[in-house]
Structure formats: structure tokens, C-alpha cells
Amino acid sequence: MMGERIYLYDTTLRDGAQTQDVDFSVADKIAIAQDLDRLGIDYVEGGWPGANPTDDAFFAEAPDLTRATFTAFGMTRRPGRSAANDPQLSALIQSRARSVCIVGKTWDFHVDVALNIPRDENLDLIRDSIAALRVAKGEALFDAEHFFDGYKRNPAYAASCIRAAFEAGARWVVLCDTNGGTLPHEIEAIVRTVIEEHGIPGDRLGIHCHNDTENAVANSIAAVRAGVRMVQGTINGLGERCGNANLVSLIPTLMLKMGYETGIRRADLPLLTQVSRAFDERLNRAPNRHAPYVGSSAFAHKGGLHVSAVEKDPSSYEHVEPDAVGNHRQIVVSDQAGRSNLIVRLREIGMEVDPKDERLPRLLDLVKQRDSEGYAYDTAEASFEMLVRRELGEVPKYFELLRFHVTDERRYNALGKLVVESEAVVRVRVGGEIRLEVAEGNGPVHALDLAMRKALEPCYPLLGDMRLSDYRVRILAAKAGTAAMTRVLIRSANGDGTEWSTLGVSTNIIEASVEALVDSFTCKLFKTGAEPRR
Amino acid sequence: MMGERIYLYDTTLRDGAQTQDVDFSVADKIAIAQDLDRLGIDYVEGGWPGANPTDDAFFAEAPDLTRATFTAFGMTRRPGRSAANDPQLSALIQSRARSVCIVGKTWDFHVDVALNIPRDENLDLIRDSIAALRVAKGEALFDAEHFFDGYKRNPAYAASCIRAAFEAGARWVVLCDTNGGTLPHEIEAIVRTVIEEHGIPGDRLGIHCHNDTENAVANSIAAVRAGVRMVQGTINGLGERCGNANLVSLIPTLMLKMGYETGIRRADLPLLTQVSRAFDERLNRAPNRHAPYVGSSAFAHKGGLHVSAVEKDPSSYEHVEPDAVGNHRQIVVSDQAGRSNLIVRLREIGMEVDPKDERLPRLLDLVKQRDSEGYAYDTAEASFEMLVRRELGEVPKYFELLRFHVTDERRYNALGKLVVESEAVVRVRVGGEIRLEVAEGNGPVHALDLAMRKALEPCYPLLGDMRLSDYRVRILAAKAGTAAMTRVLIRSANGDGTEWSTLGVSTNIIEASVEALVDSFTCKLFKTGAEPRR
């Protein structure tokens, strides 16, 4: 089995486009198709020409793919029409796709109820459509809809449907778990029967799974182990309901753990993390930090004893090398932090500290103390660094926020519309100078951010390059006899896209926000080596 | 196999607490343990007494669980100490847990490198610790760390470790895929060997999987099929790196598809969706709409032919009944479908509306419009009800907030301490009267809440019975060319514990908060049938 070839078929742009909340533009589709091609995916399914304006426009401007086969999706001809006379099939044939995949029924119940035609006629639909596409395009694929549910109820009929497609010349017959409810051992058993009893060879079979039981990846692997040689899926598991099989998880497992070859060159496998994250960025979704292989936490280590062991021998704590998929190791600090964990974390912010350094216990106590107050430093590395360096006396006093005053008021704006406007006044000491500034913003924190910039930028013009990129608030449940604490997390970004996170904790949301803001400005000044004003 | 009992062991509060971005407070831990108990989980692992202040405080206030076994986590005794003299084991024994689970090494490499002791001595560590705990607590469990990786390298040694635990009387020997890299077919094969060749019966074996290849659920199922009878996992798959096995996905598969019994009564299975979503709300994370079984999109269907077919026979398009897990079908896109969906939602808030009611299209447009603005009414049923009833003219004008003004200022308090104080002034019309009031609070929203109560309570004394129980803020990603929107969710509670949720959306956090506050007061007045002031 080692070294055998698995074909990868991406349906992000078609089945993935069914996801609630996802709308691809033509430009999105072009960029995603090019990313998939660059990675080395064998088939890129672009959509359904004739089904909607976006897909029509995309197929009209079809991108030039260098390695992937650009594929169109459609369905078997309508009952009561010849394949040659079916407008939908004609649109597929006319499209600029190099290959066409059509879906057809294989569950007797759906033939009876949804198509409402004799079961034998459905076999004709499949045969005629595949044959016509094969002649016209050279390659046709058949998606066997509801195959596993159909096979469980009426194996003979489901098998006759896929045999019709196979005998009509389908390059791939793709077994679909359309409702997503089939379990891995069922998939494996049914695929084996299809190959052994119904005589369709594995190198003509594909698998298409949905994640409704969280088994889409395992189901795809089970089918491959049973013999199929093509896998359909989507980037990051996009897809309707619970999503399709996640190619980003499947690819490294197939290549690094199961020894299969795909169209992806080994040297290109590290592109995977980047392709996955760029895809989420394009959809304006935060990448899933816990995603297998490619998430930013996928190789994170937390907890004292454990971390010193990871340092000794990563391979005994990591199931694959993070580099192999373009990811990297991350060491985090938290409540669980032991001394060795702290040392590693300090190393990450560029501080080499000897394990016997007498300042370590003090720092560890400080971090633990802050943790118990609600400071979650694993999400705010910049605040962690500022905390430590301040404690060690390394951070100059760039400025001091002496006083602030924020007002939020509902009033009529210049257009006569009732709005809430926020205004902040700050009094800041910068070197020997006291600066009093005021600014208006979208909300109290925005106003404070702007007012502080007005006060600081004349002395530190570098701050003009940074902006707030995210702001999150969480209320920490009150401990007995105290007020609830508010935790504010601020993410800041430079013009070049580099980001850092800071946090603040207080019973007052404004105070917590100010703390995070001050850390963010201070971190920026410290990192750029700004000279403190005297 | 039908009807056999699988034991469920939840480690959300211990292994789940290792998740980056997650920090449980003691109050969180208590509430989550109670939810798990109510659902019917067999074991609730609370944490590691002695390891950190949060776990110490939690075990000191250990909740009274009615059905679940409250369990503590720890590790085998240290080398060179007797079990009786090991402070860590003593802390476990002294804890209020009814059962203890300890982790120990089973991979020879880790014994050599991490423990740095002779391999036989590790067997003594395991035996002594399990025996001591079993005597002291009546029940001990053994987590066999790195078992699968260890077994692949040195099966004899890994087997001798778990046999030591078994022979010392461990109720459960839990095989852990600590690094998360093992695939389902490997898990199944190794578990079968453990049972058949190493003689540990399946009803004494558990499985503990991580999701590093997106196979944690499938790996757990594979182990159960091979014979283990206990499954460890977490709510929503929380856990370090890529997470632990997701109990929320596993439970319905085990019970509804594989025919196993668990500690969860069939009639309680519909609690699952609520437990899953409440957990995310507690962590201030958006529930994953694509989550298997419990996600809001898990049973979503798009318009067109498909939907009428779903209505004819849901079972041919849905792998399980949504009701069975407390979820519901969602029909999207077509106006016709949207209308019946709306009727269902109205019924949920106690309004029976005829499908032909001429007000429905107007309501549907309103809800769609609000949805597109970021109002997520599925988390704020009270705001949904107020929206609909206001549109239908059913909500009296109890009061009108004419103007407000909030200030937040850093200043010295009466004790000479630098604090941030928030003060709100409101001008409210109640009947024919205009009331101007001011109040101070912990933050701007707290101050507004108090000021509004001062203005309203003299007219509506009922409001004295309610309080804010939670306040959450989420920033919604900006669409092209617009400012980011802020969504505020407020949870309010009556003295008797009944709760309701309201929301507000605006570019300004204060405006969004005020909107949610006004909805909350209005809802309270409406629900108690208050007479509006004239």
C-alpha cells in the first residue's frame, strides 16, 4: 500500500459554497482555485454552470490552472429528454471545464419519491448522461447520491446504479454519504463489498463524506483503507450543515502517516497551513486555532513538567513535525505554569534566564497572582512581556496617564439623527510635559484610544503606524463577596500586519480597557526601541 | 452488543482546562459540574487538588452531585517515596472526591527520559499508588499516558504497566492517545490485542483520545467496538492543542446509532444541545453553528425541491431526528420556508399565528433585516419577543429614555485610592412625568442600570425584584466600508431565579448596552402584566 496514489478532489467552490453564511464572489473563487492548484490538488470543482450568476461568471473567466483538472458539477439528464436535448447537460458540455462530475440517485426511495420515475429509467438517466459527457469532454465522474443509505436499504439497486455509471465509462464513481450519518465501520464494510462483490475496482472509486457525526475524516480514511483511490472534500471542512470531509486534516494523515502519494509534492506540504489560514482570512473568519495540523494551538504545550520534556525530545510529544505542514511549536503560560514553562516562555520573548536565576520564583509568583486575578496571559503575549520586563525594571516610563474622563451621550448629530457619541479627555505626562487632549469616537474605548494618540503621537510619531484590530470583553464570574471582574483583550496591528495582544482586568470595563490600551502603546514603543522623552 | 452499558467520563474541568484561551473560575467549574450531573455523565473529573489555587478552591467547595461520581485527578507517587508519604497522593486522598484517577507512564522512552528511573520501578509506582488510593477512596482509575505510542514501540512493557494497574485493583484502566496521532484502525487493533492477548477485560478498560488528526471521535468509537466500556472526553471537544474527544458528538452516536446505554436517560438526551450551547456562552464563545448534532446549522435545509421532500419524509434527509438531541430543523432561503420557520419561532414564545396571517410577511422582513444587522435572536429570546410584539402593537409604552449621559473618570476615592468611577445621568419619561436621575456604578452599564432603576422603580416597584446576572460583548467583523458592530447580550434574573436574555447591536458599545437594558426592563414589565403609567 505504501506509495500508492490517492487523488484529491476539492469541492470547496461547489459543495462548500452551500455553507450557511458563506458567499463567494467570482474573485474569491478565482483566488481559491489558484491556491488549490498551487498546492497540488488533482481536481478543482468550480461550481454548477447554469445554476446561478456567480458560477456562470466564474466559468466564463475560468482561471488557467497548471496542474489541477478544472471540473464542472451538474446532474443526470431530466426524465423524458435525451441527453443531447438536455439544456443543463449542454451547459456543462459548453463550459470551459476539462472534466464534469454529475450527481444521480442511487437510493430507491428517492427515485420513487423525489424523481417519481420507474427505477429502471433512473439507470438510463445515469448511463446516457455519463456516456454523453464522456464523449464530449473526455472525462466524466459520477457522484452516487445517498449511496450508503440507499445501499443499506436496497443493496442490489444501489449497486446497479453505480454499475451503470461505471459501465458507461465514468472515470470515477464517487460513493456519497449525503446525509452524513454513516459510521466508519459501515463505510469500510460497504466499500469492501462494492469492490469484492460488485466488481468495481478501487482505482475507479471515490468517497464523499459529510461531518454530521464528526466522522467525515475517519469515514474517508476508512474508505481509502477499503480500497477507494479518490477523496472528495473541502478546505477547512467547509460545507452545509456540519461540513464536508476536511482535506486539510486528511492530506497530512494520508501522506505522513499512511504513506500514500497524492498530487501534492512532499516539498509543497508546508503550504497547507498557509492555504488553510488564507482561506479563512478571505472569508473574514478567525482561523480555528484548534484545527488539526494547521491551527495555531495544534502544537501548543501548556503545563509545567510536560514542557521540560518537550524541550528534551519533541518527537515523543508531537505526532508529526510541525514544520512538515508549515506550522510551528508554541509554549504557553498559565495557571498551570511551572518554572521550566516560564523559562521557555521567557525565551520566546527573547529573554534567556538561567533556571537557577533568583528572580524566577518572584516572577512565577507574580504570574500566578495575576492569573488568579483573571489575567489570562496565554492570550496576551504582549501584556505578559510587559509584565515581566516591568518587574525586571527594563521598561522605561514612556508616558503616564494621569487622569481621564469619558462621556457617552445620546444626542442629535449634524444630520439631525439621534446617535450616541463618546468623548474622552486625557491628561498625560510625557517626559516633563503635561498634555491635555480630547477626542470623539464610536464608543468610549475608541474615544480614549484617539485621545491618547493625540497626546502621544507628537512625541512618539511611531504610534501613527498602529491601530486597534480587535476588542473583546468577558465578564468573569464574581467570587464570593466581590464584584464581578471584567477582562478586556485588545489586539493591535502595525501597518505591515504584525499583531500583538494585551489585556486588562478590573471591576470597571473602562479601567480594564485603559490598562490594555496602555500596555499596547507601551509594547509598541518598547519593541521599536523608542527613546523615552525626558 | 445492543443495550450494553458505556460509562461516560468527562474531563472538561481538568484536561479541557488546558485549552488555550480558556480559564475557568470556581463559579464556572461548579456550574459546569452541575450541568454534567443533570445530563447524566457518570464521572465528572473536577481537576487536580493541590496543583493550583482554582482547583484547590473548587475542591474545597465541591458541588453536591446527585448522580455523577465526583473525581479528582493526579499522578502516580514520586520515585523514592512511599505512597503514604507522597504529599500529592495525600492531597488526592484528603480531597472531597469520591474517586481518583491518576496518570502514569507506559511508554518505556518516557520512563527512561522523563522519569529517569529503572523501568521496573515505574511498575512499583503504578501498583503502590493505585493500591493506596483504592484502599483510601474505594475506587481508583489509571490513565495510561502515551499508551498507544508506547505500545507501538514496546508492547510488552506498555502491557506490563497497565497490567500492574489492573492487578492493583484499578476500576478502570484508561488507554490514552496522549499525543493524538493514532488512527482509528490502529486503536482498534491495539485494543483488541490488549483484551485478547493481555487479558484485561473490556469492562475494565477506558479510552482517552485527542483530536490531532480530527479522529478523536472515530478513535473512541473504534475502541468501543473493540471492547472498551468507558469513554473519556470533554464538552464540545475542549482540550489542549486540537482538543479531546467530543462527548457531545459521541453520546448521540453511541446511544442513537450504536444502541448502547449510558448513564444518560433517553428522555434526557434532548438536554444535550442546551448543555453544549450554555457551555460556550459561559466561555463567551460563539457556539459552533456547524457542530454535529447540536449546531444551529446541523439540521439546516435549503429551499426548493429538497425542502418539500424533507417535509414529506425527514428521515430520508436527516441522519437522526433533531428533537432526539434537543435541536431543531432549520429551513432557510425561500420565503415560504422562512414563513413556516417564523411560525414555529412565534409558537415558541407563546404566539399562535395562522400561516395566512397578513402580518407574517412584514414580520419576516423585519426579522431578516435585523438578522442581517447582526441581531442574533436565537441567543436572546426576550428581545425577539419584544421585537415581534412591538411590531404587532402589543407592548405598551411603559417609559421612554429621552436622554442619557455617562461619565467614567479616574479619580481618588474616599479612601485615597485611585479608582475609575462611572456615573450615569438619565432623563426618562414615565407616563406624564419626566424623571431625571443619577447613579454611580462599577462601570458605565452598571451606572446606567442603577440610574434607570432609580427613575423607574417608584412607578414600577416590580423592577426591584430583577437584577443583571450576566453581560457579554462580542465585536462583529466589519463588512467592507463599515465600522465594526458591537453586540451586547444581557442576561437578567428574577429573585426566583428565572432568567431572560436581551440584546443590542450598535457601533457604540454604550448604545448597544442601553438597547439591551431597555428591552430587559420592558420584558419584565410586559411579562408581569404591569399597568403602564399614564
From TrEMBL, chains A, B:
Pathway: Amino-acid biosynthesis; L-isoleucine biosynthesis; 2-oxobutanoate from pyruvate: step 1/3
PROSITE patterns according to UniProt: AIPM_HOMOCIT_SYNTH_1, PYR_CT
Alphabetical UniProt keywords: Amino-acid biosynthesis, Branched-chain amino acid biosynthesis, Isoleucine biosynthesis, Transferase
GO biological process: isoleucine biosynthetic process; L-leucine biosynthetic process
GO molecular function terms attached to this record: (R)-citramalate synthase activity; 2-isopropylmalate synthase activity
Pfam families: HCS_D2, HMGL-like, LeuA_dimer
Domain Pyruvate carboxyltransferase: 6-270
CDD domains the record matches: DRE_TIM_LeuA3
EC number: 2.3.3.21
Chemical reaction(s) catalysed: pyruvate + acetyl-CoA + H2O = (3R)-citramalate + CoA + H(+)
PANTHER family: (R)-CITRAMALATE SYNTHASE (PTHR43538:SF1), ALPHA-IPM SYNTHASE/HOMOCITRATE SYNTHASE (PTHR43538)
NCBIfam families in the cross-refs: citramal_synth
Family: Belongs to the alpha-IPM synthase/homocitrate synthase family.
Protein name (Swiss-Prot/TrEMBL): Citramalate synthase
High-level lineage: Bacteria, Pseudomonadati, Pseudomonadota, Alphaproteobacteria, Rhodospirillales
